[in-house]
# Entry
Amino acid sequence: MHISEGVLSGPVLISGAALAFAGTAIGLKKIDYDKIAHAGVLAAAFFVASLIHVPVGPSSVHLILNGIVGLILGWGAFPAILVALTLQGVLFQFGGITTLGVNTLIMALPAVFCYFLFSRMSGKKPSIALVSSFACGFLSVLLSALIAGFALMFTEEDFFEVAAFFLFY
Amino acid sequence: MLKYKPNYQNKWKRTIFQLLLFLAVSFFAAGTAMAHKVMVFAWVEGDTVYTESKFSGGKKVNKGRIIVYDQQENRLLEGETNEKGEFSFKVPEKTTLKIVLQAGMGHRADWTLPIEESESVASRQMEAPSPAVADAEKPQHQVQPISQINAEDIQSAIEKALHKELKPLYKMLAESRNQGPSVTEIFGGIGYIIGLIGLAAYFKYRRKN
# Structure
């Protein structure tokens, strides 16, 4: 789900960057001293997760982990994911520097959303926690696909086609 | 003994549960966006430009759109890759070609074919037919034309042989561009993140005091 450089139009890039910046600012404020280590570990996990591919059927799957990042960090998901994506962009040439804002938004916004939906449930009974974390992981990826489709819709491609591709391929 | 046993089991249970929880989250988090990057690689052979398109995982780009531009960003031609990620076309114009791959869902890559490469092809393309015709027509005037024909023949033969020899090399080059991130880069990234944790901790700590 890394959108490459030169695909999105200027306004989409700029608004994506602005929103990601706002989210990161909030996240940095909200992360307290105790959560810094959590954020770092999750950022590292997110950074590496996309490299490990598990073949499933004709395609392959890799962990995205934005659900769990959001569940644990809340708003802190923004800075953690921003850092991980920046390093992926610089070191692996995944995505690009100009699309960093949009890509961060694609990953981090669903994470934060899931945090507000599910964080209260995950502290409860094991069975509830299990179900809610399933739902959390599922929903976060689904929303990421939707945002990516939304961003691309402004440029060239058919929204549903794109969102479906993100989900099923 | 009896006192400790249930305790131990509980702990065990909790660990298993946590593991399950993690797997649950991560597997649904798996989603499936498999590609991070696409690459397109192009080379000239004879009067044809061959392109090969791949995702960073090594999977070929099926039905990706290839658009060829000249230096002034004029669209020259367009096509679709086959299931092997390949697409080839005749050299359309004697300029530097910019080959853009759009693999859908935000994946894009380009490759520039330098002018000399295209130029040598285009010039040979114009010369090439003439020696063949001359060859067939003129067995009777012997001495002078033959040497001329020979020179051209040699040139085209050499070029043919070179292309044949270089083909695996081109393929290899295309393959080698496909390598994923190296261990150095991965650990480098993790190192950066650890450094950033330290930095953040430092600033938060200072603010606290």
Notes: Residues 143-176 of chain B form the longest helix (34 residues).
